[in-house]
Write a structure and sequence with these properties.
With 794 residues, the chain is α+β, with helices and mostly antiparallel strands. Helices cover 19% and strands 31% of the residues.
Length: 794
């Protein structure tokens, strides 16, 4: 391989911004032109459409949590039955929030975390076939679950600016198979392979590295979502099998399906040969920590160009080992300065080439030329230990994409081999639509043989799809393609959209050409409006404010009735006494509610809506309907209609739509149950009043016969600035025995058995040394105390 001219102080060509790099010129050929190592004419990756969320892990809740009763009922149950272990929510929530932050931060900055998203396949024993490509990814709050995502191809038509159509098969996530495997510790790495028809997948956690076989078990349903996927462990290599140390990386020979190589955080690697199921034999091992600097435990390994050798990368050095003679090692490259190696990646097209990412540069190296990079680019990225590298080499060039779990910017570098010279085919650039950080990104090529072009005169452009697993365990995707600067593809037919736009308005002769900004609006992709842009946060606040208004109204009305007990002392919300399961449909809910309402109405209770009919929530949910026609289905239908108006259904997967409908169902049920109140009858309040009077009555009870107000009461009234009018209460002494009264709203003749509530009554414990006449307590009216009228305020 030829080399570029170097100065005496240079070991290789190192490119940076503002310099054209080395150059060659042949003086023997008069027609020869200057050849520069850095070129500007290469094809860049362009974005097709917008970055979309194909799976949102934060949208879905576990089935167990949905089956639990409401939070209000749980709070009451724990507070009543287990007061010794009950913790108030205002104390518990900050601790839970802090714990989640610590866990997520640890996972985010764990140096031993590897790939968390990979391609894989499953084996069908009935048809004896391998499934099509799938995605395996780490899921769960603490990254302890392995889930699978099926992929389905959709025929999509794209358009060029000259109205040339192209039919493209675009893969999209169709269904999610959750929790195929649940680990006891957070999963740090998963590795699979779909190019060699392999049914195996590697999983590495804190305690072991395991090779699984994914088996597809059929059920009565035809959908893969309704079938069982068994993850059968074939080989388990624990930490105590490799020097009692955590594993840093693990690789498997998916082609021969026999060999495993594991390296621990001390740099000790071991080679394992799988002779049969559940049997492993350690063939060789080596320790490469001799005379090198201390590291944070990060190591990475991969197969070399020869199947009997491996490449081992640490923070400061890259070495080549022979599996047959582990003591035989060769240094491929080592950093001489204070910079660290962050990632290492092999090329799939040329087994001799590999790339090393450091904190300062990207190095292109060849196994056959150890110690001397072919080329390097200084990336000038800030120090970021989560910075990683992936290679796309489907068009012959090496297109390197840098991504991070901290910085959303994705940088793109393009290398090529022109003749025998390593060169840069274009200047580095930011990848379009770099909108989110990424734990793991993989490239999914849209192969040419899968796509049939409608125009033979159209040059074939290479299309690919970039999938990324974001920190919230969601999967995003973006389509890219290589093309010249004057070629742009979109999902929109500009000509048809332009004519439709003009048909809805008057167009005179002077307005045939639309403005530039209008054309920009037309070019916006269909997918730019996402239903997640609808903000539901005000919904709860508005309902709460409405409830406060209702309670205040009832309280003020009761205060105007002197000497009369409050008729709305206990107002229950329907969700406090009824919590349907996730599987319950609307018809079953309405059937249950009819029975509940019938029982309460027969016993004198009033059922009414806490939402005024004129109220309109979020300006989309209208409650201006008759009370007997209003139900949860109205909320559900309104949410679905609003979502359909703002979402393009042609570009949303079936799985996406189904889970959106389920989410809207949960929202409508929660809103409906929270918006219905139950008002107790007067007889119920009268029985409560009589029960309270009986508790406070005593033969030795003495009634105050004068209107003299004690100093203690004056002190209390002076501090009573905001609250209920004190004239509504009367004062009464009680005997020496401390009355610690608690009364229950137990089932009585006027209330159905299912309604239970046990509010506590404020009591005052007395001391025997204190005069009985000085002890006062709030109770039911006996004799009114004359005092200055104070205005109640809210």
């Amino acid at each position: 391989m030829s080399n570029w001219p170097l100065s005496a102080s240079e070991t290789h060509v190192s490119l940076s911004y503002g310099s054209i790099g080395a150059a060659l010129y042949s003086s023997k050929n008069k027609e020869s032109k200057w050849s520069f190592v850095k070129n500007k004419m290469g094809h860049r990756l362009k974005a097709l459409g917008e970055n979309i969320i194909e799976y949102d892990g934060s949208m879905f809740f576990s089935e167990e949590s949905l089956m639990q009763p409401s939070r209000t009922m749980q709070e009451k149950y724990l507070r009543t039955n287990y007061p010794d272990i009950w913790v108030p929510q205002d104390i518990l929530k900050p601790w839970i929030r802090e714990s989640n932050i610590i866990t997520s931060t640890y996972i985010l900055h764990d140096p031993l975390r590897g790939k968390c998203l990979t391609e894989c396949q499953i084996w069908d024993p009935e048809s004896r076939n391998i499934s099509s490509k799938m995605f395996g990814f780490v899921s769960g709050i603490n990254s302890m679950n392995l889930s699978l995502a099926t992929i389905k191809n959709y025929n999509t038509t794209i358009y060029c600016e000259d109205n040339v159509e192209k039919s493209l098969k675009v893969p999209k996530i169709s269904e999610i198979i959750e929790s195929v495997f649940i680990s006891q510790t957070p999963i740090r790495q998963i590795s699979g392979n779909s190019t060699n028809n392999s049914k195996h997948i590697l999983i590495r956690n804190h305690t072991s590295s395991t090779l699984f076989e994914l088996i597809h078990n059929h059920s009565e349903q035809t959908s893969i979502k309704n079938t069982d996927i068994n993850s059968i462990p074939l080989v388990i290599i624990e930490n105590n099998d490799t020097g009692n140390c955590e594993h840093s990386d693990v690789i498997f020979d998916f082609f021969n399906k026999r060999e495993l190589v594991v390296i621990n955080r001390k740099g000790q690697w071991s080679h394992w040969d799988i002779e049969g199921r559940y049997r492993t034999i350690e063939q060789s091992s080596s320790n490469i920590l001799t005379n090198i600097k201390e590291t944070d435990g990060w190591w990475k390994i991969d197969w070399a160009s020869s199947p009997r050798s491996i490449i081992v990368t640490g923070r400061y050095e890259v070495k080549l080992f022979d599996l047959r003679t582990p003591s035989n090692e060769n240094s491929l490259y080592s950093l001489q300065d204070s910079h660290n190696i962050l990632d290492f990646c092999k090329s799939s097209q040329n087994s001799n080439d590999f790339f090393v990412l450091s904190t300062s540069e990207i190095y292109w190296l060849d196994e056959r030329q150890p110690g001397k990079p072919l080329l390097s680019w200084k990336h000038y990225r800030s120090y970021d230990p989560s910075l990683k590298l992936i290679i796309e080499d489907s068009i012959g060039n090496f297109n390197l994409i840098l991504y991070s779990n901290i910085n959303p910017i994705k940088s793109c570098y393009q290398f090529e081999l022109r003749g025998s010279l390593a060169s840069s085919s274009t200047l580095p650039y930011e990848l379009p639509n770099s909108q989110s950080t990424s734990m793991t990104s993989i490239i999914y090529p849209l192969n040419k043989h899968d796509n049939k072009f409608r125009k033979n005169d159209l040059d074939d452009q290479s299309f690919l799809k970039l999938y990324s697993l974001v920190s919230k365990k969601g999967i995003t995707s973006q389509i890219y393609y290589y093309a010249d600067d004057d070629i742009n593809y979109t999902f929109c037919n500009h000509k048809s959209l332009h004519s439709v736009k003009k048909s809805h308005k008057y167009v005179d002769n002077s307005s045939e050409n639309e403005s530039t900004e209008e054309n920009k609006r037309i070019e916006d992709p269909i997918l730019e409006r996402d239903f997640r842009l609808v903000d539901f946060s005000n919904l709860y606040n508005q309902i709460t404010q409405t409830n406060n208004f209702v309670f205040r109204k009832f309280l003020l009305e009761s205060q105007n009735k002197e000497g009369e007990a409050s008729e709305n002392y206990e107002i229950l919300i329907l969700r406090d006494i009824y919590a349907p399961s996730k599987e319950t449909n609307f018809d079953e809910i309405f059937s249950d509610l009819r029975k509940i309402f019938q029982d309460y109405i027969e016993n004198g209770w009033e059922i009414y809506s806490l939402i005024p009919k004129s109220q309109k929530l979020l300006k989309i949910i209208d409650f201006n309907l008759e009370s007997d026609n209003w139900n949860f289905k109205n909320i559900y239908d309104t949410l679905i209609k609003h979502w359909l108006d703002t979402q393009d259904q042609n570009n949303s997967s079936k799985y996406h739509r189904e889970n959106t409908y389920e989410l809207f169902k949960d929202i409508s049920i929660e809103l409906g149950l929270s918006s219905i109140g139950l008002k107790p009858p007067k007889s119920f309040m009268k029985l409560k009043k009589e029960s309270l009077n009986n508790c406070l009555s005593d033969d030795n009870l003495e009634i105050i016969q004068n209107d003299i107000i004690s100093e203690d009461i004056l002190l209390l009234l002076n501090e009573w600035k905001i609250g209920i009018n004190p004239d509504l209460y009367q004062w009464q002494p009680f005997n020496k025995t401390s009355i610690n009264t608690e009364f229950s709203y137990e089932p009585m003749s006027s209330a159905p058995p299912r309604l239970m509530s046990t509010p506590s009554l404020l009591t005052i414990e007395t001391s025997e040394k204190t005069d009985l006449t000085d002890q006062k307590s709030l109770s039911q009216p006996f004799k009114k105390i004359k005092t200055k009228q104070r205005k109640a305020g809210f």
